[in-house]
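Feature request, filed as a ticket because there's no other form

It would be nice if the structure record came with a short human-readable summary line next to the C-alpha cells. Right now we just get the raw output. Example of a typical job, pasted below so the devs can see what we mean:
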Amino acid sequence: MDLQELILVSVDDHIVEPPGMFEGRLSSRLQEKAPKVVHVDDMDFWEFDDRRAPYIGLNAVVGRPPDEWGLEPTSYAELRPGCFDVHERVKDMNANGVLGSLNYPSFPRFCGQVFAEAAAHDADLARAAVEAYNDWHIDEWVGSYPDRFIACALPMMWDPGLAAAEVRRVAAKGCHAVTFSMNPYALGFPSLHSDSWDPFWTACEETETIVCMHIGSDSRAGQTSPDAPMNVRITCSGINIYPTAADLVWSPVFRKFPGIKVALAEGGVGWIPYFLERADYTFKHHIAWTEIDLGGKLPSEVFNDHIIVCFIDDVFGLQNIDHLNADMVTWECDYPHSDTTWPNSPEETNRYLSLIGDDRVVDKVTHLNAMRLFHFDPFATRPRERSTVRSLREEAGDHDISIVSKGKKQHTVEMRYMGSQVVTTAS
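Raw output as currently delivered:
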C-alpha cells in the first residue's frame, strides 16, 4: 500500500486542557471551587481541591528537540499550541496525515483520579467537575470537529452507580468511550474481580461503550527503584498492562457482560502471542484445582473476543499479526507525548505495515477497526478520498511543523501537603 493513500485513526492521543475550560460550567455555588490555572514562578499549575499540579514535560514535548525533554515544558507558553488549542491540533493532525484521534485527559489524570480523590470529602464538587469536564470535551473539543475526534469521557470512579449514570448521560450525547483504571484496586477501589462494578459494566454494555484502560491509570510510577534511570520506566511502560490483561481474562466481567469490550491503551502488541500461550497453558494445566469457569472458552478466545489492543511502534507485533485477532488491533500516534511519531507517523508506520502483506488487514489496523469499535464515522461528512495522508497534508499547506528550541531550563518541583494546603516551590 502506498503510504500516501493510508487513512490513519489514532486511538490514543492526549489533551493538555486549556486554561479557562471550566469557566461557567459549574453551578454558582461550586464555580469558585472549579479547577483553574495559576501562574507561579514562571510555571503554570492546575489548582483544585487545595492542590497544585504542574505540567511535567514528557506529557507535552511535541515540537521540541529531544535534548530539551525532561521536566520541561512547565508552562503553556512553552507548549506547541496544538497541545491545548483544538484548531491548532487539527492543523497538526493534517500535517501528520492523521484523520481521527481519541484524546485522553492530562490534568485529571487518566481515569479522573484527581476528581475521585476530591470526592472523598466533597462528592458534589467532584461530580460537578467530572460532568463539566465531559461536557467541555464532548461539546467543545470533539464538537468543534466531529469528523476528526472520538469522544472519550471520564468516569466517577468513587461510585459505580454514578459512573453508570454518567456513561448513559454521555452516550446520549454521542460518546461511546470511557476511561477507567487498569487496576482500580491500586486506587483504593474494588478490584476488577469484584461485582461492585456491575452497574458500570451494565451501562457500558447497554450503550456499547468501550472501556479504555491506559497505562499509568493505576497511579503507580512503575519504577523498580528510586535510583533506576528513567529508561527503565519507559522501557517497561507498555508491558505494565500485562497484569491487567490477566485480570480481565480471569475475571467474571466478560462472562457476566458478554457485550463489553476493553481497550488497552499504549500497551503495544508484541507481548500478546506469548501472553495468550501462557494463559492457555495455565488454564489447561491448573484448571483441575483453580476451577475457574470461562464459559467453555480458552483464555485466548476470551482475550481475542473482548480486548482491543493498541500500538505506536511495534514491528515484532505486526510481523506476528496472524497470532492476534486482526479485528481488534488499532494504531496510536500518542501526540503530544514523548513517544509520539508526529509529524512523521505515515513514514514510521509504513516500516511495519508493509510487512503485513494484505491491504485489507492494513485498512483494519489503520482505521476501520477504530471506526467500527468506537462508533466513529468521519466518512459521513468527509469523503474518503479527502481523508488520506496525501489529502490531509495538502490541506495542511504550509503549516509549520519545525522543531523549535525553547531553551533547556532546570526546574526542581517540590510538592508538600500541609493539612489542606499545598506548598509548591520551583527553582
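Something like this underneath would help us a lot:
Confidence is low (pLDDT under 50) at residues 411-427.
The CA atoms of residues 54 and 413 lie 8 Å apart.
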